[in-house]
Amino acid sequence: MGLLFGSFLNVVIARVPAGESIVRPRSRCPRCGHQIAWYENIPILSWLALRGRCRACGQPISWRYPLIELLTALLFLACQRRFGWSPELVSALVLVLVLVPLSFIDLEHWILPHELTWPGIAAGVALSAPLGMERVRDSIIGAVAGFLVFWGMEWLGEKIFKKEALGAGDKDLLALIGAFLTWKPLLAVIFLSSLQGAVVGSLLLLFRGRAGPAPEPETPTAPPPATTPGAETLPVGEPGPAPEQAGPERADEDEEDDWVPGPTNIPFGPWLSLAALEVMLLGPWLREVLPVPLDLLLTGAR
Ligand SMILES: [Zn+2]
């Protein structure tokens, strides 16, 4: 089931940002328009059998397709192992079905389309109904709290740093996570996503000269000293770093809307999604490993 749903998520990822229907036209090769037959569309197996190439034109088919199928299948399996055959499993699987496409769309286009986030918030609240009224209440509080926390941070960021620290869709994504997981683990999700984003951002900064997820406040101050030594250590023949020299020019103009992500920048949405899945799937394990006060703070466990 995870493989089949993963195959469908590939369609969602390709079509939703383009504003296209996810049901109507049958899948075609984006390069030659060859209509894809059912036997060319079997998760993972077809991609392997075709050796990653379109049968008609021979152009490569992205490895993202089998990757998303495999990832969705593994996450489905992990959810089943975590929740068993329970009503909570349904909610967990639907969360996977929303977070996987949102993450890959955000990585590619730097948007979190509300065509996915808003119905997702509604689904999160609705799917908590079989788990009891208390859960519905906590789910609604989670959605509102998630939205307000990032709305407040955005407002503060604009007032204090005079810059956009979070994408507009991040509020909706945290509201969605709150609707599915309730308000209790929201602090853990924010903490884990920021921590992991900062660690990977720092590593990219170290190895690629300049990087970082958008919300890192140290990013604007870090590049100036890093540009010169960073440029020297970069591998020769790497075309990536050239656009990064646009940094200083950007600073003079002081505009935010025309901001273009650098080649190594990562949006925040995938980090939030990753943290939500970690808290959902590894929650009991985290509770055992972490010292009690930290565990209370992070997982909201009673
Ligand atoms: Zn083709």
Characteristics of this structure?
globular, mainly alpha, 2 strands, binds zinc ion, two-stranded parallel sheet, 12 helices, 1% strand, 302 residues
How would you sum up this structure in a few lines?
This protein is 62% helix and 1% strand.
Structure, described:
With 302 residues, the chain is mainly α. The chain has two domains: 74 residues, no CATH class; 217 residues, no CATH class. Helix content is 62%, strand content 1%. It is built from twelve helices and two strands. Strands 1-2 form a two-stranded parallel sheet. The two termini are 34 Å apart. About 15% of the residues have low confidence. Zinc ion binds next to loops.
Q: What share of the residues does DSSP label as strand, in percent?
A: under 5%
Strand order of the largest sheet: 1-2
End-to-end CA span: 34 Å
Number of strands: 2
Number of helices, counting only DSSP H or I runs of 4 residues or more: 12
Helix percentage range: 55-70%
Query: Which small compounds were modeled alongside the protein?
Result: zinc ion
Annotate the secondary structure layout.
Blueprint: H1 2-15, H2 45-49, H3 64-83, H4 87-109, H5 114-126, H6 133-160, H7 168-181, H8 186-208, E1 212-213, H9 223-233, H10 246-253, E2 265-266, H11 269-289, H12 292-299
Parallel strand pairs: 1-2
Helix pairs in contact: 1-3, 1-4, 3-4, 4-5, 4-11, 5-6, 5-7, 6-7, 7-11, 8-9, 8-11, 11-12
This protein binds zinc ion.
Zinc ion binds at residues 29, 31-32, 34, 54, 56-57, 59.
